[in-house]
Automatic annotation (TrEMBL):
Domain of life: Eukaryota
GO CC terms in record: protein phosphatase type 2A complex
Alphabetic keyword roster: Calcium, Metal-binding
Stretches for region Disordered: 67-121
Species of origin: Neophocaena asiaeorientalis asiaeorientalis (Yangtze finless porpoise)
Role according to the record: The B regulatory subunit might modulate substrate selectivity and catalytic activity, and might also direct the localization of the catalytic enzyme to a particular subcellular compartment.
Protein name per its UniProtKB record: Serine/threonine-protein phosphatase 2A regulatory subunit B'' subunit beta
Length: 578
């Protein structure tokens, strides 16, 4: 026995031991054999209802005689005297038994009969219907042959029945897909290697897809995913978004400034993963795509000429604001910023401790953060959206990860005090009396109302409608003072308002875009001392009918480097102003 292990009695083992001890006694075995012989005797059960004068073995007595014999005080079986068992009775007795005995014997007979196990009928097999469909629920009404015939008729209109990238819009409509699926359809059929797609190759690909993928999410992932994968990485979206940039009328002015295609594509990819990739895994699955509104926004690209109306992913104005904010902080313009650069955001509004947590790797990916203490433009997209809109699930998770110092999934009072200390020091330097931590803690607990006393979980903050007030209290001095000046009742009214109102991020992006356009129109230099890097494109672009044509743009004569994504190594390219 291992040292330290305590023996514990097992009741079943003790009962089995006593039963075997009783069963090994010779008197017990003789009694059981006698009972079995009486049961097997022919005409036994029928003899109960026969002539009373005819000798026959009663069945009530053996059932009583089969009881185990008593044990003495020492635990050993005691001798079985004759008086311990009821007499079997004399069959030749002239006196018939009392009328009660008949029912007793029949009762004994019923007991023996009920103990005989009757064979049970075979159980009917239960058929559990399929409830898990990772590639969508199959649809019985899909007529594959009719769809294939329509695709073949479309290909018949092309020379040699081969479709180029420009023809794929008609092919997408023949497949019943939104217009901007044409890029993924072209790449999925191998068109990027040969420049065109034959009808036979496309029909074979689409027939196979209809048999294995049963909804739009599964089809979209199948078209974009790398060979052998089942989820989408960031680089898988590049061909699709490049086609959007090349062909959408709302982005026509970008044709003259191809240097910034990758910047726009990187921004859209980060916004897609920020909203859709709820697991923070860096790969989007069919289930995540199915639960999001991304495919609905892709379908709207066909009908919406103004790309800025699609504010959730594709808005050019939002890209413009994000890139300008990053350009202001990136003083050396190497597309990376360090902690000192990020601390200058919004006039040093964010505390130093929170800046350190952002650069600790809690919410960033990539090797630059760990090796050189820098974050990329892709990381900055996540930061800025999370900073300006702390009401979305992703932003709440973002800041919760930063505040959870030990990573135990709970914000303790120690962690809250750790961040609040710097807030108090900054308020003192501004000659503002800071609220003691105990009073501030009471206010925050009343605000969040955590389910467990003394600890705040991620679920508590997602349930709270004023999570932005909670976060700003501990690491954003400017917004904390703004919340203090406004009444809490007005904050609740804003959080509970319903209807098509703008989100915090959409409101911020609209305001900042107007400011940037006004500054560019006036030709004012930026606050960091640099001349206005954002200049309008040449006069030819102003003649375009697109409402975006006259908006200011970044003008850069140099070539474009590699697309900056989480896993990509940056080549060090820069886009200097002209």
């Amino acid at each position: 026995m291992p040292p330290g292990k305590v023996l514990q009695p097992v009741l079943k083992m003790k009962v089995d031991e006593l039963f075997l001890c009783w069963l090994s006694e010779s008197s017990t075995q003789a009694m059981l054999q006698d009972c079995l012989q009486r049961i097997k005797m022919p005409g036994g059960p029928e003899g109960v209802g026969g002539d009373a004068g005819q000798p026959g073995p009663p069945f009530a007595a053996p059932a009583l005689a089969c009881r185990p014999r008593g044990l003495d005080s020492s635990g050993a079986p005691s001798p079985s005297p004759v008086s311990t068992a009821l007499p079997l009775g004399a069959a030749s007795s002239a006196r018939s038994g009392p009328p009660v005995r008949g029912p007793r014997r029949s009762a004994g007979t019923r007991v023996v009969q009920t103990r005989k196990e009757q064979p049970l009928p075979p159980a009917a097999s239960l058929s559990i219907p399929t409830f898990y469909f990772p590639r969508g629920r199959p649809q019985d009404a899909v007529n594959v042959d009719a769809i294939i015939a329509k695709i073949e008729r479309t290909f018949a209109q092309f020379p040699h029945e081969r479709a180029t990238m420009g023809d794929m819009g008609r092919v997408a409509k023949a497949c019943g897909c939104p217009l901007y699926w044409k890029g993924p359809l072209f790449c999925g059929a191998g068109g990027e290697r040969t420049g065109s797609v034959s009808v036979h190759k496309f029909v074979a690909m689409w027939r196979k897809m209809l048999q294995s993928c049963h909804d739009d999410a599964a089809k979209f992932v199948h078209l974009l995913v790398s060979p052998g994968g089942n989820s989408l990485a960031q680089e898988d979206f590049i061909p699709f978004l490049q086609d959007v940039v090349n062909t959408h009328p709302g982005l026509a002015f970008l044709k003259e400034a191809s240097e910034f295609h990758s910047r726009y594509i990187t921004t859209v990819i980060q916004r897609i993963f920020y909203t859709v990739n709820r697991s923070w895994s860096g790969r989007i699955t069919c289930a995540e795509l199915r639960r999001s509104t991304f495919l609905q926004n892709v379908a709207l690209l066909e009908d919406e000429v103004d790309i800025n109306q699609l504010t959730e992913f594709f808005s050019y104005e939002h890209f413009y604001v994000i890139y300008c904010k990053f350009w202001e902080l990136d003083t050396d313009h190497d597309l990376f910023i360090d902690a000192q650069d990020l601390a200058r955001h919004n006039d040093h509004a964010i505390s130093t401790k929170m800046i350190e947590r952002i650069f600790s790797g809690a919410v960033t990916r990539g090797k630059k953060v760990q090796k050189e203490g820098k974050i990329s433009y892709a990381d900055f997209v996540w930061f800025l959206i999370s900073e300006e809109d702390k009401k979305t699930p992703t932003s709440i998770e973002y800041w919760f990860r930063c505040m959870d110092l030990d990573g135990d999934g709970v914000l303790s009072m120690f962690e809250l005090e750790y961040f609040y200390e710097e807030q108090c020091r900054r308020l003192d330097s501004m000659a503002i009396e800071a609220l003691p931590f105990e009073d501030c803690l009471c206010q925050m607990l009343d605000l969040v109302k955590p389910q467990s006393e003394g600890r705040i979980t991620l679920h508590d903050l997602k349930r709270c409608k004023l999570a932005s007030v909670f976060f700003d209290t501990f690491f954003n001095i400017e917004k904390y003072l703004d919340h203090e000046q406004r009444e809490q009742i007005s904050l609740f009214r804003e959080s509970e308002s319903e209807g098509p109102e703008l989100s915090d991020w959409e409101r911020y992006a609209a305001e900042e875009y107007d400011i940037l356009v006004a500054e560019e129109a006036m030709g004012e230099p930026w606050e960091d001392g640099y001349e206005a890097e954002l200049s309008p494109v040449d006069q030819k672009l102003s003649a375009l009918r697109s409402p975006l044509a006259q908006r200011p743009f970044f003008e850069a004569p140099t070539g474009l480097g590699a697309v900056e994504l989480y896993e990509y190594e940056h080549g060090g390219d820069d886009l200097p102003p002209s």
